[in-house]
Amino acid sequence: MKYILVTGGVISGIGKGIIASSVGTILKSCGLHVTAIKIDPYINIDAGTFSPYEHGEVFVLDDGGEVDLDLGNYERFLDIRLTRDNNLTTGKIYQSVINKERRGDYLGKTVQVVPHITDAIQEWVMYQSSISVDDDGVPQVCVIELGGTVGDIESMPFIEAFRQFQFKVKRENFCNIHVSLVPQPSTTGEQKTKPTQSSVRELRGLGLSPDLIMCRCSTPLETAVKEKISMFCHVEPTQVICVQDVSSVYRVPLLLEDQGVVNYLCNRLNLPIEIRPRKMLSKWKEMADRSDRLLEHVSIALVGKYTKLSDSYTSVIKALEHSALAINHKLEVKYIDSADLETTTLQDDPVKYHEAWQKLCSAHGVLVPGGFGVRGTEGKILAINWARKQKKPFLGVCLGMQLAVCEFARNVLGWEDANSTEFNPESKHPVVIDMPEHNPGQMGGTMRLGKRRTIFKTKNSVLRKLYGDVEYVDERHRHRFEVNPELKHHFEENGLHFVGQDEEGERMEVIELENHCYFVGVQYHPEFTSRPIKPSSPYFGLLLASAGKLQSYLAKGCHLSPRDTYSDRSGSSSPETDISELKFPSL
Predict the structure, then answer these.
(1) Distance set, CA 187 to CA 152, 183, 190, 191, 192 (Å)
(2) I want to staple 307 with a disulfide (CB 3.0 to 4.6 A). Which of 68, 317, 335, 468 is the partner?
């Protein structure tokens, strides 16, 4: 097993996740089996109880693990399926060590950070790195990303653990990539190396010596700057890699490949690969070129409550991008804070109110993603009402689907106080209710989480056709409330059909409105399984409908016209006549 540790310096949020994913991608393109581990030094057991403003969205895995959004990057880049234990936190490590201490495993010993915590970290990494994450067998390379920045007090035990680890697994099986910032102040326009020098000096002082220094910068590194970093940071100039801002993340693996990262890792770790043209990377190049060439635009209004930080909806944006790329359109996301659509904003800040409605009315389609809490829900309901009445393509995900049911109950069935018991426990028409078996008083990890099966109840569902006319789909869930099954018949009599339900037929999973171009709600989160070359079907449907292509797509038996498809065949850059190359999630 080969281990590649990715650390970061100067600032957090520098792009370690994308760089770790890209390193994994170029190694996978050489035919190696790659897995990934993300270490978060916070004390929380998992990311489940965070506000999205803390660390961005909470990503959900097949096994129900609520984890950091970087694991979403790993899954999308490497097309693998990870588990909750691929996200390691200080909380998990301390919990496991304290449980051992209570059981008496350390009887007679003083339990300390060194060696007990550091040993537990090493054991966790060694065990988890051997777990298969795809259908191809045991991983050969494990990319480990250490969150935060070097020097943080929280990450000290992890740095010490890896200082010991490099000797335990031997030098030829361990290498360290350090990601640092090279700022370019606008006053002088000169690239500054001092932050990188300080950061590397601190890392070396803690016992880890970087093998590759990846410099994040706005423009390509000048040769003199590269040589200066090389001289002061104890590496060859070829070990200083420039990762400048690029037009799309698809270009990052190509950028690393062009600078000889594979060759270096191959020699440094004695990797069992032959240097040959990378078939998988030509697919990435084609995607990157295609994304830069797009001319037609499609705009989606994203109506949510965490719109000030785009990381809050990372997977949603990626799923939209994958689908837009598949139909040859450039995506424009219009972020709308749902509270701005409410009448209270009209009184408090009329300009903000009218700007929000102008954004909504000018979009080609409307998306209401998941969320928690009552703030902004009335604004979301107003947006859903507008999309329904104006026949605009609409997709509601999780809470978005529940609010679509509330909106329909209020404005079509005439139940004025219809609501979710999450927001109004006293409602006479509780159309959305909590699931008592998933709410035993504790907040962390008590929702209905992970991969669950949804059965289609009818053959003429639009979403069923988009999925490839299958009988069921397995998608990831994260919710504590559900549509009230006792009121189902009232909706179906008036044209809102529950076309997908769980295996017992008790949970409503998919809604579709009749006589509408595309009005779909899903209780699950399809964005978590979307891939660049296998877009998620509900999002794909939204983009097709927003671009005015859904009906012709369905009429052609779910095939795009030749100019809209693209091939993921390695050597080909010409459009294919069939969408068979554009794979949908395997079911």
Answers:
(1) 30, 12, 8, 11, 12
(2) 335
- Is 525 a residue of the active site? yes
Cβ neighbours around 282 below 10 Å, total = 18
CB 585 within 8 A of CB 529: yes
Residue 179 bridge partners (DSSP): 8, 214
**What are the CA-CA distances from residue 342 to residues 112, 352, 381, 403 (Å)?**
54, 10, 9, 15
Judged by DSSP in three states, 312 sits in helix
**Burial category of 499 from C-beta neighbours within 10 Å (exposed 0-12, middle 13-18, buried 19 and up):** buried
For 227, the 3-state DSSP assignment is helix
Laid out side by side, the sheet with 174-181 consists of 87-89, 34-40, 141-146, 2-8, 174-181, 212-217, 240-244
CA torsion angle 376 365 326 370 (round to 10): 20
Q: Are 176 and 20 in contact (CB under 8 A)?
A: no
- Strand duo 519-522 + 508-513: pairing: antiparallel
Label residues 399-412 b or e (16+ Cβ within 10 Å = b): bbbbbbbbbbbbbb
User: How confident is the model at residue 276, as a pLDDT?
Assistant: 62
Candidates 66, 75, 160, 527; catalytic one:
527
Partnered with residue 301 across adjacent β-strands are 334, 366
Q: What residue has token string 């078996």?
A: 437
**Cα-Cα-Cα-Cα dihedral of 483, 484, 488, 492, to 10°?**
-30
How many residues appear in the chain? 587
CA distance 62 to 251: 28
Q: How far apart are CA 47 and CA 57, in angstroms?
A: 9
Consecutive 10-residue runs of the chain (587 residues): their mean pLDDT? 93 89 91 93 87 84 89 91 93 94 89 93 94 86 93 92 95 94 89 93 94 93 92 92 90 91 92 69 84 89 88 91 91 93 90 93 94 89 94 93 93 89 87 72 70 90 91 90 88 90 86 92 93 90 92 81 45 33 39
Q: Return the HEC string of 134-193.
A: CCCCCCCEEEEEECCCCCCCCCHHHHHHHHHHHHHCCHHHEEEEEEEECCCCCCCCCCCC
Question: Annotated catalytic, 142?
Answer: no
Q: Which of 398, 407, 482, 512 is catalytic?
A: 398
Question: Which residue among 33, 116, 479, 525 is the active-site one?
Answer: 525
Residue 403 CA to residue 521 CA, distance in Å, equals 9
SS3 assignment for 40-67: ECCCCCCCCCCCHHHHCCCEECCCCCEE
- For residue 456, give the H/E element and its range: strand 448-456
CB 88 within 8 A of CB 38: yes
Rounded-to-integer distance, Cα 499 and Cα 509, Å: 8
Helix (H, G, I), strand (E, B) or coil at 478: strand
Closest C-alpha to 6, from 202, 212, 163, 204: 212
Q: Is 527 a catalytic residue?
A: yes
Amino acid 241 reads I
pTM: 0.89
